[in-house]
Amino acid sequence: MSLEPKKFLHSRQAILSLSLVTIYWIYCLFWAPLIFLEGISSFGWIGKIAFLLISCHLTMIAISIYLHRSQTHKAVEFHPILRHFFRFWLWLTSGIIRSEWVAIHRAHHQAPDRASDPHSPLNHGLSNMFLKGAEIYNQAKNSDVVSQYGYVNDNDFLEMYLYKTRIGPFCFLLLEIAFFGLWGVVLWNLQMIFQIVAQTALINGLGHYCGYRNFHTDDNSHNLIRWGILISGEELHNNHHHDPAAAKFSCHKNEFDIGWLYISLLRKLKLAQLRKDNGKRTL
């Protein structure tokens, strides 16, 4: 079976990255001086764990309030400086191409949990969302879906020649190796795994499989828990499907959406504003 050009390119990049990382590990373990093992930073375990948690949280916040609520559903608009920061951070830490991510999510909202839903556990099975979530996502981003639903703002020079490349995470790996030495490889892998599990398994998988429902929507969306912190408020998935255009995902006093907390703070700083037509609408 032959690979499609894009899939072959991604496979080749993955093999190259893995080979370089393996060579670096062997070099550090047997021949390298201490700086290659520990990096140029003086962070201990607490510092490394803090960096891991902060970087993962920042990536999930960028995905939730910028890529999801702003770019996909147009519920909130951010200051240009913030938009550039979000674009750079997502490119660096996730390799997400905005038009592809937005297109797949909009296609999901067109017919959630029906035959054409690109990532429903009712179609693919919950176990596959955990084990093959990335593959399911990659299969969904065909050119027809992207051309129909993948319209985004800020399609500038940086977008075309930098942010649509997938070298960001590899650059992030090199930076982490420089700062943390051998442990940078471990931190990087944990960051990549967390992103995949959070998006494909927890939200796209469990978010349409189990939990509680505030609203009787025409899909199987559920709220996972009442406090949306770990995945930046995306845990309140049924609330979101009830009103995709709302920037705030929490609906009741006992629910908390940390993404909305950040949006509220940014609004006070004049760095974000809600759309005037922020009521319920469909794409």
Description:
It is a single chain. With 283 residues, the chain is mostly helical. It is built from 14 helices and four strands. It folds into two domains: 32 residues; 232 residues, no CATH class. The strands form two sheets. Strands 1-4 form a two-stranded antiparallel ribbon. Strands 2-3 form a two-stranded parallel sheet. The N terminus and C terminus are likely disordered.
Beginning-to-end CA distance, first to last residue: 38 Å
Count, helices: 14
Shape designation: globular
Helix content: 55-70%
Strand content: under 5%
Structural class: mainly alpha
Mean pLDDT: 86
What strand order characterises the main sheet? 1-4
Tally of discrete structural domains: 2
Q: How many E-type strands? A: 4
* Major beta-sheet overview: 2 strands, antiparallel
Report the order of strands and helices: HHHEHHHHHHHHHEHEHE
Concise summary:
The chain is mainly alpha-helical and 283 residues long. It has helices spanning 5-30, 34-38, 45-72, 80-93, 98-110, 121-124, 126-131, 133-140, 143-149, 157-163, 168-180, 182-203, 237-242, 258-268; strands spanning 76-78, 227-228, 256-257, 272-274. It has a two-stranded antiparallel ribbon. A two-stranded parallel ribbon has the order 2-3.
Comma- or semicolon-separated keywords:
mainly alpha, oxidoreductase, fatty acid metabolism, disordered C terminus, two-stranded parallel sheet, two-stranded antiparallel sheet, transmembrane, disordered N terminus, 14 helices
